[in-house]
Structures are given as structure tokens and as C-alpha cells.
Amino acid sequence: MTSLAEQTIPTPDPDYAGKVRESFKRQAFMGHLGAELTAVGPGTCEIRIPYREALTQQHGFFHGGCIGALADVTAGYAGYTTAPADATLLTVEYKISMVAPGKGEALVGRGRVIRAGRTIVTIAADIFAVDGVVETLCATALQTIMIRHGRPDSRSADRA
Amino acid sequence: MTSLAEQTIPTPDPDYAGKVRESFKRQAFMGHLGAELTAVGPGTCEIRIPYREALTQQHGFFHGGCIGALADVTAGYAGYTTAPADATLLTVEYKISMVAPGKGEALVGRGRVIRAGRTIVTIAADIFAVDGVVETLCATALQTIMIRHGRPDSRSADRA
Amino acid sequence: MTSLAEQTIPTPDPDYAGKVRESFKRQAFMGHLGAELTAVGPGTCEIRIPYREALTQQHGFFHGGCIGALADVTAGYAGYTTAPADATLLTVEYKISMVAPGKGEALVGRGRVIRAGRTIVTIAADIFAVDGVVETLCATALQTIMIRHGRPDSRSADRA
Amino acid sequence: MTSLAEQTIPTPDPDYAGKVRESFKRQAFMGHLGAELTAVGPGTCEIRIPYREALTQQHGFFHGGCIGALADVTAGYAGYTTAPADATLLTVEYKISMVAPGKGEALVGRGRVIRAGRTIVTIAADIFAVDGVVETLCATALQTIMIRHGRPDSRSADRA
Fold first, then answer.
1. What's the pLDDT tens digit per position in C39-85?
2. Nearby residues of D2 by Cβ (< 8 Å), 6 or more positions away
3. Distance (Å, rounded) from C-alpha D123 to C-alpha D144?
4. ipTM for the complex shown
5. Helix %, strand %, coil % for chain C, to 5?
6. Neighbors of chain D by Cβ distance (3+ pairs < 8 Å)
7. Smallest CA–CA separation between B116 and chain D, in Å?
8. I need a surface site. Which of A148, A150, B94, C107 has the fewest CB within 10 A?
9. Which residues from A are below 8 Å from C92, CB to CB?
């Protein structure tokens, strides 16, 4: 939708990209999946997971749970770019539709903020299976996160 | 809902539990998460993931992506118990609401079929964080799977 | 899940039922659907829509859009019982799975709070098609609402 | 995503637009909402609902249930364009995120097919609140429908 692309996504923290990078590094599960943060922008985020046998389902393709986890973090960090410096985020919920098998040398997730509220942020994420230069959409997701003000990301946080 | 508990969930494959066990073993990603299949019944499934540092987010709790993956497989295998012997399944979509942090010595996922159609099966799954004998609900999910008849689970399968 | 039924749902507004009744009355769309508020409890709500030709799809059953609207308000008002007196609510999102046609003399929706946070409330709702004393589950939904403190329900409200 | 826009959406029924128009007319609930089918294309659909007091919530804006119903039918008919002549459709599920109040002289829903399978079709829909020439995104949805082959839309149909 052009109207979405044209909206200005606010990034109150000038170092929003550094903040995302730091938080990403602290997530041990991202290392366990071999995930790499490849791009961060205002309201956007891209994360890549190279293929490994350990990430597969019974047919040798990327497991749906791995695709879902990638959608979760890609959307979450896209949303996190809109938070102020002293805030952490909570995933409230997400929904993911699988549209093709995760068959390829890598998965790439791309998230973009749909609407950035002060407390509630809505984000879309598309997950592509990559085979050389060809990217095939394998899943699309919609996520809701909650921004928790005054709670730095490095501190422990309970649910609001 | 009592009306749900009372409905009879069909299991046309007499060895539905063996089928689920075999399929689960073939999913390398389940091994990577350290997941254990702890129970299978007609339209139900229970899977457990013991705590490991490798599965955490920045606050040291189970990562939401790990919680989501557990919901995905728990619901999927609960639904798979309703499939005939010569069928495989595809996850069509799921939605998950996070309601508490994944804080504990293990996650336990429990799936139960809501409605078993010939082609489309709807399943609910609850994910609990376990601390000793206390289980705290940390997420609840609704999933849709598609049964693909005449496609054994061990063969490669594309999306319908 | 017994563990859910056993939890105590907080209702900080002693007149939570009156508040729901008043808000329901102000929704012209509920009158347009012929919806009746039949029960309200702590974290629960029941709403009924008698059959009318005007509410049908091409096969003469209740339209999915009507079923979805019932899920939306039933879950929303179940969640609203957990809000303090000076708060209004916003629907953040919901997901609904359709499991049987809406075929009968009425639809009945029943919502129950899954988790009541101060700001975010997660609610489940089941929609049944009623034929005499027989109730058939026709849809199940999961909803997220946001409680807006200090914003009475009768005032106009923008999105948080 | 440009990759989505570029894909060719199949419309095996040459009269897909006529089929959608006929089906839309048979839905009494669409008349009850005052909905108008304003455009149909391969994998796309646009439906408009002019403002009426009868469609509002307690703040005088379009009710969320009306917004949800519009998302449901807009996505459903976008998906229905991909079905052969002798097929009807069933809504399997949808998820909708509300991002702004439904405040304006009309709602416009626009659906577009994300992936058209033989049996399962995934569709996205955006709902805009219209005020003069300004359109504001008020909700975004993802839907799954099932194509039932050999079941004309005008006949009664149970759930697969």
C-alpha cells in the first residue's frame, strides 16, 4: 500500500539501530538458530538464518517453528526501533500464515511497522526462502508488541 | 467447554501414536530445541522442553520464538492424530497470544483438537512454564492444519 | 484447562456488570444485529443474537461477519469487566477460526478472560449455533484488548 | 512487497467478476450493512460501506464488528476470484489488527491474494476510514479460505 510506505515512522531514540543490535546480541536463542541481523531502519528490520540440518522438519526443509521464530523477532525488532531509549518491549501476540515450504539455502525475514502507537505497535513481517537470487515468500505474519516505558531492555521484565 | 471435552475425536489410524512418535523423531529441529514428546492421545499431544541457556531471550527466560515453536508442533501433532495412515500434514497458520514470561525449569505444551474435518483441522494449544509442581500459563494458541491424503509423512511434500 | 477456571479474575469496579450493560446499550451496531446481553460475570460475558434473514450469507446461515462481530464484542465485554470504573477499552486485535456453519435459531457467544493485565487483557470467546437445546460450536476466537485508564467509556477516544 | 505484486494470480473462471457479484448479492447481511461491491480484479476486491448511525460503537465511530465483517468479505471475495466456476468457498479463519478508529464518511476494504493454492488461499485485506479524499488505515487482516470444488456457490454447504 503506498499510503503505508509514505507514512513517517518515528524513532525517538537516535541510536535505535545500536539498541536493536545490542538487544539482538543478548538473545542466546538467536545464536542457537544461527540468526544474523542484516539490516535495521526506521520501523524496519531484516534478519537472516542460513540453512542447517538442525533447523529442519521431517522433509528436510526449514521447520515451521523456525520460520515462526524468525517472524517473531523480525517483527519485534522492527517495532522496537520506534521505542524511546529507556524502554523494553513485550510481544503481545502474533499470527503467521504459511504459504510455501521453507526450502532453500537461507530464510530472510523482513519486518515493517504498520502503526506505531506510544504503547501498542502493530508490525507486519514476511519470511522468504532464498535460493541463489530467487526469494520465495514462505510465510507472512502480523504482530502486536507493547512498549514498556522506563524499563531498559537489559533489565528483567514481567508482563504488563 | 464441556461440550468440547465430550466430543469424540476420530483417529482413523489405529497406530496414530506411533505415527506421531515417528514423525516427531524425524524433525531435527525438535532435537535442536531438546523437545521431548511426553504424551499422545486421540486429538491431544503434550511436548516438553527443558530449560537451557541456548533457548533464552535477553532476560534469561525462554525466548518467545521457542514458545511459538512449541505451540506450533504441539498443536500440529494433536491434529495429526486425526489423520489416516497415508496422510501428511501442513501447518496452514497459527496465532499465539503471550500472557506471561517463559520463566521456569521447563516449558510444557498441550494441544487439543477443537474440530477435526477431513481436510482442515482446528487445534488449540496452551503453553505452560513449569516451576516444580507449579504450572503457569505463558501462551495460548489457535492453529489450522491441512491433512494431505495419499501423501505419507516421510515423503517430501509441497504446499497444497 | 482447570488451571484457568481456578484463577481469580479481578473486577476493580464493583459495578462492572452495570458498566458493561451501559456500554453495550450505547453501541448502535448491537441493536442493528439484534444482539442481547444475556450474562456478565467476573471476566465473563454472554451475548445472544436471534436468527434473522438480514444476518445471513448466501446459504441462509448466519454470516461469518456476524459471527465475527459477536466474537469481538463478547470477548471485549468479558475483558471490560476487569477494568476500573474510569477506563474505556480498545480492541487491539482478534483472531477467529470458523469450525461449523452458523446454522440455527440463534448464535450465542461466551467470552472468558485468559489473562487480565493492567493494560493488556487476553480473552477467549466461543460462538455456538443454537438449535433448541443443542449448541454446536461454530467459531472460536482469541482477542487482545487495551485498557485505557482515566478515559471514561462515554467519551470519545482515539487509538493509544 | 514488489515480489507479491508481480506474481500472476490465476482466475480459472473467466467470469470470476460476475461470480463474485452474484454471490455478493445473495448475502443478505451485506445489504444490512449497506455494503457496495466497488471493484473486482484477479485476486483483488474492493468493498465500501457508507457511514450510518446503525453501524456505530459507543463513540459514534464505525463499530469494530463492522470493520471485521468488511475485512472478512473483502478478503473472502478477493480469494474467491481464484476459484473455478463450480466451486464455493468457506472462511477457515482470519485475524484482524485494529490500528485507528473507524472515523469517517465510509469504510473501504481492499483485499489481495497472497497465495492461491488449489484448496487453501491466503489473503490480506486493509480497511481504510475515508474522509473526503483522505484514507486512513484503520485495520489490517490476514485470512485463510478453503475452495470447495464441485460445490456451486448457490447450493447449501457444510464445513469440510
1. 999 999 999 999 999 999 988 999 999 999 999 999 999 999 999 99
2. none
3. 6
4. 0.91
5. 25, 40, 35
6. A, B, C
7. 9
8. A150
9. 92, 120, 144
Do residues B122 and B115 lie in contact, with contact meaning Cβ atoms separated by under 8 Å?
yes
Query: Per the CB < 8 Å rule, is D97 touching A140?
Result: no
B64-80 vs B16-25: helix axis angle to the nearest 10? 150
Q: Residue A60: count other Cβ atoms within 10 Å of its Cβ.
A: 13
For the residues of chain D, what is the DSSP string, one character each?
Answer: -HHHHHSPPP--STTHHHHHHHHHHT-HHHHHHT-EEEEEETTEEEEEEE--GGGB-TTSSBPHHHHHHHHHHHHHHHHHTTS-TT-EEEEEEEEEEE-S-B-SSEEEEEEEEEEE-SSEEEEEEEEEEEETTEEEEEEEEEEEEEEETT--TTS-----
Q: Spell out the residues 6+ positions from residue B78 whose beta carbon is closer than 8 angstroms to its own.
A: B43, B44, B45, B111, B112, B113, B123, B125
DSSP three-state, residue B36: strand
* Structural domains present in chain D: 2-148 (3.10.129.10)
- Say what the pTM is: 0.93
User: Over the stretch A82-91, which tens digit does the pLDDT of each residue have?
Assistant: 999 999 999 9
Helix boundaries (H) for chain C: 2-6, 16-25, 28-33, 64-80
Q: Rounded to whole angstroms, how far apart are CA atoms D108 and A105? A: 40
Neighbours of B133 (CB within 10 A): 5
Mutate to test the interface with D, among C26, C29, C153 (most CBs of D within 10 A): C29
C-beta atoms of B117 and D92 within 8 A: no
